[in-house]
Amino acid sequence: MRRILLYRGSLLQLQALGVKRVYSYTLGKETGISAQQVRKDFSEYKIKGNQRGGYRVDELISEMENIFYKKGSQNIIIVGRGNIGSSLANYDNFIQRQINIVATFDIDPSKQRIRSEIPVYTMERMEEIIDRFGVRTAIIAVPDMAAQKVCDQLLGYGINGIINFAPVILKVSEDIIINNVNLSDEIESVIYCVSLTENECPE
After folding, report:
1. How confident is the model over 161-177, as pLDDT tens digits?
2. pTM for the full predicted model
3. CB under 8 Å to 105, separation ≥6 — which residues?
4. In the chain, what are the domains?
């Protein structure tokens, strides 16, 4: 699925350049993935091309849009309206991806007075908002000390997918989908690899 996202991003760039057709080896070169893996991934989602003519870029993009948006737009919430939470709430590209941030939550009364298209609610209203908008996915952008408590609260209200920006590993059951995004770790890993030769840097 992550590779499909990479392909889509590359295809959108090619489309903007006026490219009409693309071959698996070209797409692989653009994304750093082998042509064989590209074809295998496409086969997994029953995406077919032409051996001689390759793939039509617009048709590929349409196929991938169907993969991600077949259930229509999705409502999500953000818990934590600090720097990261505010940046995510104001990120315009979510709308293009049919991702609707319907609400944010914070314990700080001053944050609840923020004037924004996306309201900031008290934590006490979380269950109500989740039920009203049928939310199943949430973003956690709170300090590490509060993250597990917030996570448990979200799971209790029916959330089963979490993107976690708090610098801590959350404890959840195996049926919960969770992606941990630790920006400091990502930066440090790049800094570490930059200090090494290309062959020394681990995957």
Report:
1. 999 999 999 999 989 99
2. 0.75
3. 77, 78, 79, 80, 81, 120, 121, 122, 123, 125, 126
4. 2-68 (1.10.10.10), 74-185 (3.40.50.720)
